[in-house]
Amino acid sequence: MATGNNEPIILTFDDGPHPQWTPKLLNILSAHNIKAIFFMIGSNAAKNGGIVKDVIAEGHRIGNHTWSHKPLLALSKKSIFEEINKTHQFFLDCFSYKISCFRPPWGIIRKSHLELIESRFNYESVFWDVDSRDYFLPFPIRDKKKLKTKTIYLFHDGIKFSPVFSREHTLLSVERLIKIHTCK
What we know:
The chain has 184 residues and is of the alpha/beta class. The strands form two sheets. A five-stranded parallel beta sheet has the order 3-2-1-7-6. Strands 4-5 form a two-stranded parallel ribbon. Helix 5 links the parallel strand 4 and strand 5. Helix 1 runs parallel beside helix 6. The longest helix has 19 residues.
């Protein structure tokens, strides 16, 4: 995943797909020839199969973000594996897509459970270096000298877990971040 002048940044989007916001993000990414990772909630993917197909067709990666985004620390090991396996199997059965990466909801999980998940599903765990906090406000990009390459940015394309019910600020923030990285 690289910007126009081959400086790698990794854009990740959690909690989708969403029928309004994910297609708009796909348009932005396509316009700049950038690939991203969409950490999808299985139940959202089940409601938005056409968008999932678009994400796959455009060459983006899909990561497992559990079936229902429940806090994993509150679940038994069995329930955690059911959440992950249901999503994993759904993508195989409905889209012939084998998920290869995982991000726990809110990035919170016991290390022992994470190691078991990585081993059992052959997943790469992907967290983030920069949380855009786009669930509250637009991501402040003030000093492009402070932006680093090879940085994993966390954004969201779902709205269920955000007090902000618009992702317009996410779209704006992604556009600005891409522009800064491609215009250095």
